[in-house]
UniProtKB/TrEMBL annotation:
<dbReference type="InterPro" id="IPR011990">
    <property type="entry name" value="TPR-like_helical_dom_sf"/>
</dbReference>
<feature type="transmembrane region" description="Helical">
    <location>
        <begin position="138"/>
        <end position="156"/>
    </location>
</feature>
<keyword id="KW-1133">Transmembrane helix</keyword>
<feature type="transmembrane region" description="Helical">
    <location>
        <begin position="7"/>
        <end position="25"/>
    </location>
</feature>
<feature type="transmembrane region" description="Helical">
    <location>
        <begin position="256"/>
        <end position="276"/>
    </location>
</feature>
<feature type="transmembrane region" description="Helical">
    <location>
        <begin position="326"/>
        <end position="349"/>
    </location>
</feature>
<feature type="transmembrane region" description="Helical">
    <location>
        <begin position="76"/>
        <end position="102"/>
    </location>
</feature>
<dbReference type="InterPro" id="IPR052943">
    <property type="entry name" value="TMTC_O-mannosyl-trnsfr"/>
</dbReference>
<keyword id="KW-0802">TPR repeat</keyword>
<keyword id="KW-0812">Transmembrane</keyword>
<protein>
    <submittedName>
        <fullName>Uncharacterized protein</fullName>
    </submittedName>
</protein>
<dbReference type="Pfam" id="PF14559">
    <property type="entry name" value="TPR_19"/>
</dbReference>
<feature type="repeat" description="TPR">
    <location>
        <begin position="526"/>
        <end position="559"/>
    </location>
</feature>
<feature type="transmembrane region" description="Helical">
    <location>
        <begin position="282"/>
        <end position="299"/>
    </location>
</feature>
<feature type="repeat" description="TPR">
    <location>
        <begin position="560"/>
        <end position="593"/>
    </location>
</feature>
<feature type="transmembrane region" description="Helical">
    <location>
        <begin position="114"/>
        <end position="132"/>
    </location>
</feature>
<keyword id="KW-0472">Membrane</keyword>
Amino acid sequence: MRFPKFKLEYVLELILFIIILIFAIRPVENFDFWFHAKYGEYILQTKSLPFTDQFSHTAYGESTIPYEWLFQVILYLAYTAFGNIGVQALVVSLALTYTLLFRQILKEIFQVSLIPRMFLVAFSFVIGYDFWVERPQSVAYVLFMATLYLILRRVFTHARRPLLWLTIPIFFIWTNLHASMILGLYLFFSFAALALIKKDFKLAKDLALFGTINTIITLLPPIGIKTYQLLYLFFEKREFITLVISEWVPLYELGIRYHIYLIIMGLAGLSLIWALIRRYNILYFLPFIPLGLFVISGVRQTEFSMPVILLSLIPTIQLLSRKLKLNITIIIVITIIIFINFIFFLYLYRNEATGILRLYPKQAIPFIKSNLSGRMFNEYEMGGYLMYHLGPEIKTFIDGRTDMFLPEVLPEYDELLNQQYSDKQFKEKFNHLVEKYHISYAIVTVERFTPIRRLARLVREDPSWHLVFFDDTAEIYIKDDGINEKAIQNYTLTSATPFGKTLYKSGQRDEARAEYQRMQSIALSAVSLNALGFMMLEEKKFDEAKNLFLKALEIYPSAAAPKMNLAELSVKYGDPKQAIELYKQAIRDEPERGLAYLRLGQLIIQSGGSKSEARSIWQKGLAATPDEEILQKLKQELATPN
């Protein structure tokens, strides 16, 4: 029995959207999620919008524009009702709606056939994959696509006016959750102008009318004209923003993605030129050109720009489709090829495009609440999490609300971490911030070889600062300013050096052991267990050491240090093969661990392996680690004749 072609189309498209659904399910990991959720909580609790800052001590009382308030309320409700699953369901539904609307534009308005339609839908999802996260821009993408669909339907199919009324609630929602609603106004007025040129006065009147109505909507309370003031602020500070926020970087800084965009833009331009030569009417495709170029200003505009770039290919697709007729067998074969490539690239992309994964300081929250007073210093990426769990009673130094900190705090913070300061200059700059903002304690992440770790090292060397807390995600240092004397007395670590080159100060192993055990009773961590295991290793208590290393990996499976210590135990037990595998795992978990490359290469040679393989590993170590001491040892190994 033959399979009807129209049913085949639906089956193949259903498979495509199932793939999109599967890959749209991702961990809730974007650090901005937390401040958005906190705003939602605050709005529901106070039944008001926060027009002044309530959550940071550096900008407290300053004017703010809660222009994303509606999304924040929805996000908070989804999170409190269903947890992470509710947030994931929200993002998945948005991604599916966006791609379904794009598919509808291609099929209903432009009658694009199955193969190019599936390719364009799949490509639009892949190229913008990393922007489908739990942030208001995801809703804005959908509202943009819905507006585009309604306008193109009116322009190209001459549909009646009534559907344009749907843009009114769309714009009310859009205005209250993201400032990109200005792109919707651009669509209305640009197409209205072209309709006037074409002397289609009824179409021009409809589009101008609804453009005007929706412009008025953008000026209504509760936000009103403040959204436009915010847009001007972002425009004014655009150069600085691109330096500190990765998703705002210009397109030309993105390497391979930049070249992909250039190719697609070039093909779209050639498509319009060729269509013009073939006397195809491209007048109503002209608004796509500036909107397509919009992505050059910042990669986060991808899901606004890429669809219209792809729509610019339609004249050529339609001209070619008249000449190409495909039977069902060819359609199935091409579709399978599209599916295989779609899944392959999404799988690869998913490993890189995973939002922003953070190890949040969960155990530090109760410690801060119970023991600390005064003002904190924290890093930008951690601020939203701290704001959600501590605010507004305990206020952040900085968090992800870019507009809130643009005037002063964010530039100061960026200068501290990203200028090429000497240690002395760095410490002076930090001390200036401490004095200016009356900082009493600092919470910093424990990620290795980052500017924030440099800060931790310099503070650790300063006798006026005291390490009182650490786990696998964060350290807390208290300044000796008289505000937290009890915490300093009860919790200061004087012998343990959990993130130093050695795990305890010389001659103070027993004292350090007691401090690690005490810290383990406050906050479970692989760091403490690894340190305690290492001490057992030094005392040749190998079985006890092994048990502690294994317990460390139960707490934090991605910890490299316990694996490296287990590898050395494997060497002692006469199992170099197991040691080599453990070092390989350690490198996968923490690629900057230079010692792992050094020992891995040495073990390969000692076990009779290939010297060229060992040298290749040492070369990779040179490129991966910033540890100067290890770099010198790697160079020495490479300088040794084979």
